[in-house]
Design goal:
The protein is of the alpha+beta class. 39% of the residues lie in helices and 9% in strands. It holds the Pfam family HD.
Length: 641
């Protein structure tokens, strides 16, 4: 059967056939395009919108992951800024069209609809590699005096897109689009409708189409889909007193948006492994920047347009010797030889400034060196521990408006009074609400597994000093409560107070929610993260062994023989054998030596490793006083997930 040529296709009329014959080399486009989206189903793309989409400046977003490093934990969450921006544009048009139909008195024009849609499409043009890793961590670390943000990058890339592709648009409209992206009037005409600036980026309460899209999209692709009905919320929107308000019956849906935002940040965006890989990528980029100054690309639209997540591949295949350090870090990521979480703690929001001043990498390293004992950790060369080996992180988790209730900034109307709006009172929607809407997640990381225990000891020493030094004291009750002792961590003398009356917070008050928010709870060690001195020493990084791989028989014999030698060593004059500290290091009490097998191996209990491949088993050497192998030898953090 002969193939039918394009010009013989019966679906073409004679005029169309003539056009094809005369312009076979022309790449023509259809007047209207549809895109099948997993969140919004069919999305109509107008010819005007396609002018912006079909450019290298916008297509670049295909190579920038929406959730940065989260895909290393949830592989399906590998969606890009490309589809998110199209989703935001779709919702932006939908919302403005709904307002135009339901409230003709607003005089919303087709120009308004088109420019709001373009603003939604282009709002993330300025994101760099791994999204917020670039502008939130990398740029501040290598350019501490820079105020550059990805919003500024979006404006630069929008100008570049328009200029290079010859898009016919007035300067007035371009300034309007930029201000819509920023969420405030800056350079546009003062006569532009104020409520339009709450659609793409809502500075009043955070309810905007950007959030509507990413909450649905991210939740879906993380495998935790939300039940929020965004279409209902869009239809509920109404402009009253020049701001977007919602029907009071849809308050539960809006409350769920804020709650879901908090959950996404708490469980997914700030997952410990995703954050660890962020810091590893950050270190790799900083190493590259020393050689090639990639941070300067933020000032060049042509250079910035080439920056995507693909920079990792470009670095890995490079032959330049100056990139070896970055390549080594990327190899560690591939082998899952990651930095480790030493400790984590949730702190009340009002304590953040004081805690940040007190708990720093340099203080932890100083305390760790003071705490070091060669009897306990003979394999550690403490002189090599540097401030750069420790990361102290403070992340504010909130519902969208920091410590404030975001619902206090949303206005509602009712069916009885559709043209009057007011704030909802707690009794209008719920009496069961959080007492605070923000908290601070503090984490301490080590870049080398072998330093895990000693860094933890240093951190706990600093933490104890901070707890003791609080002034004014929280209350007599809190002052009398002793912090649970940290394993093997030495005590430190009382230091000067880190409380600053100028902080935007009242002094810590243990009388508020005593059981859960007392000073003791906030500033005591996290006993769930406590490790033994040998933790992280069995699988030193760089040897390419899996964290869960069993130690060889010969290695176990050497450990046991070393323990026998130490257990029979002469007394040091204090009633202890000179090598008694090594007992803790090996996690095998001397009294248990009689239980050794004929091959000289200690008793071993096997269990599956949480983060290992299915079926991978790890030997767990039983610790003194523990029959369940609670302290396992290995390099993986004991924090779940």
């Amino acid at each position: 059967m002969e193939a039918t040529s394009l010009t013989e296709n019966p679906f073409f009329n004679n005029e169309e056939q003539d056009y094809v014959e005369e312009s076979e080399s022309v790449n023509f486009t259809v007047s209207q395009r549809q895109l099948k989206d997993p969140i919004h189903d069919l999305i109509e793309l107008s010819p005007r919108l396609c002018q912006f989409i079909d450019t290298k400046q916008f297509q670049r977003l295909r190579d920038i992951k929406q959730l940065g490093t989260t895909q290393y934990v949830w592989p399906a969450a590998s969606h890009s800024r490309f589809e998110h921006c199209i989703g935001v544009a779709h919702l932006a048009r939908k919302l403005v069209e709904n307002l135009q139909r339901s409230q003709p008195e607003l005089n919303i024009t087709d120009r308004d609809i088109e420019l709001v849609e373009i603003a939604g499409l282009c709002h993330d043009l300025g994101h760099g590699p791994w999204s917020h890793v670039w502008d939130g961590q990398f740029i501040p670390s290598v350019k501490p005096d820079s105020t550059w943000t990805h919003e500024q990058g979006s404006e630069m890339m929008l100008d570049y897109l328009i200029q290079e592709n010859g898009i016919d648009i007035s300067l007035e409209d371009v300034n309007f689009i930029k201000d819509l992206i920023a969420g405030e009037k800056r350079r546009c005409s003062p006569g532009e409708k104020s409520f339009l600036f709450e659609i793409v980026a809502n500075k009043r309460n955070g309810l905007d189409v950007d959030k509507f899209d990413y909450i649905q999209r991210d939740s879906h692709l993380l495998g935790d889909p939300t039940k929020i009905n965004v279409n209902r919320i869009l239809q509920s929107a109404r402009v009253i007193e020049d701001q977007i308000c919602y029907h009071i019956k849809d308050l539960p849906q809006i409350k769920e948006i804020y709650r879901t935002r908090f959950k996404l940040h708490e469980l997914y965006y700030n997952h410990k492994t995703a954050k660890i890989i962020e810091y590893m990528i950050l270190d790799a980029l900083k190493a590259v920047n020393e050689h090639s100054k990639i941070a300067d690309k933020i000032h060049s639209k042509e250079a910035f347009c080439s920056l995507t997540d693909n920079i990792m591949h470009e670095i890995k295949i490079s032959k330049e010797p100056e990139l070896k350090r970055a390549q080594a870090i990327f190899r560690r990521i591939e082998k899952r030889d990651l930095y480790k979480v030493v400790e984590w703690k949730l702190v009340k929001y009002q304590y953040r400034a004081a805690v940040e001043r007190a708990i720093t990498a340099s203080r932890i390293v100083e305390a760790a060196k003071a705490a070091y004992s060669p009897d306990v950790s003979p394999q550690i060369d403490i002189t090599k521990l540097k401030d750069d080996d420790v990361i102290v992180e403070f992340t504010t988790l909130h519902h969208g408006m920091k410590e404030r209730n975001p619902l206090d900034f949303v206005k509602f109307y009712s069916k009885m009074n559709p043209n009057k709006c007011r704030n909802a009172q707690p009794g209008d929607y719920s009496t069961v609400m959080p007492t605070t809407f923000a908290e601070v997640l503090m984490r301490v990381y080590t870049k080398e597994s072998k330093y895990h225990y000693i860094v933890q000891a240093g951190y706990r020493s600093v933490l104890e000093s901070f707890r003791q030094a609080q002034s004014p004291p929280t209350s007599a009750e809190a002052a009398q409560i002793a912090t649970p002792p940290a394993t093997e961590a030495p005590t430190s003398p009382r230091t000067t107070s880190f409380y600053n009356p100028s902080d935007n917070a009242s002094p810590p008050d243990a009388n508020t929610n005593k059981r859960t928010n007392s000073m003791v709870t906030s500033f005591s060690a996290n006993e769930f993260t406590t490790v033994t001195p040998n933790y992280g020493l069995a699988t030193p990084h760089g040897v390419g062994r899996s964290p869960g791989r069993q130690r060889t028989t010969s290695a176990r014999k050497r450990d046991v023989q070393g323990l026998r030698d130490r257990s029979t060593s002469p007394s040091d004059g204090r009633g202890k054998s000179a090598g008694s500290g090594a007992v803790a290091l090996l996690s095998l009490p001397a009294k248990d030596l009689s239980a050794l097998g004929a091959d000289g191996n200690p008793p071993v209990k096997k269990r599956k490793v949480d983060d290992a491949e299915p079926g991978l088993l790890e030997p767990v050497i039983l610790d003194k006083g523990s029959s369940d192998g609670a302290h396992a030898t290995g390099s993986e953090s004991i924090i779940g997930g």
